[in-house]
Amino acid sequence: MKKLLRKPIIALLTILLLIAPCLPTLAQEAAPSIPTEPTDQTESVESTPLPAYLSITGRVTGIVPVFTEAQEPEEGASLVSLELADGGLCTVQITPGTYFPALSEIETGDTVTAYYKGDAHSTMIFPPRYRAAVLIFGLPEGQSVKVDRFRFDPDTERLISEDDTLALNLGEFLNVVNVDGIDQPSHLDGDMLAVVYGRTTRSIPAQTTPLEMAVLP
Q: Can you give the pTM of this predicted structure?
């Protein structure tokens, strides 16, 4: 009886050994194919461009002059140390080309706001140093400063800020200067401006007549 059972078992094992190499191929052919979309390994990351000018506000903790190579104080130049609201520190570099909407002197303890070029890197020192294009402090009550790029709207004959929040009524007399203090005759369309203004309307955009404007680089 055992001999009779042994022959079928041996035959079955022989068949299994013969077809075993073909089993993976048969499984692949039987399995349904799932289409896959090609993946791009280098995904493009869109970077948001920085504003033309950035601002920083802090309390003045110190003011030191800038010296020339001849070790003489450079006129109109100084380094202003600021303590920020979050406790951070920075230094603002004032140059003869820095625009001051108010003519009062900076003193320790004053709170100031400096505007600097957004694409300008701070020097690799601590605390970081920024070159101020505009320095705002000591403005009369009711006055404000807007730093933005303006475009001329021919329909309203007004200058409109790039963020569409402020519209400037242009009168016959307009005090326009560039950052080094020279009168700047310009159509102002597309220019980067620091605008000193007072009262505004409650419209959108708010309308105002500028008191003074500076053309920034």
A: 0.71
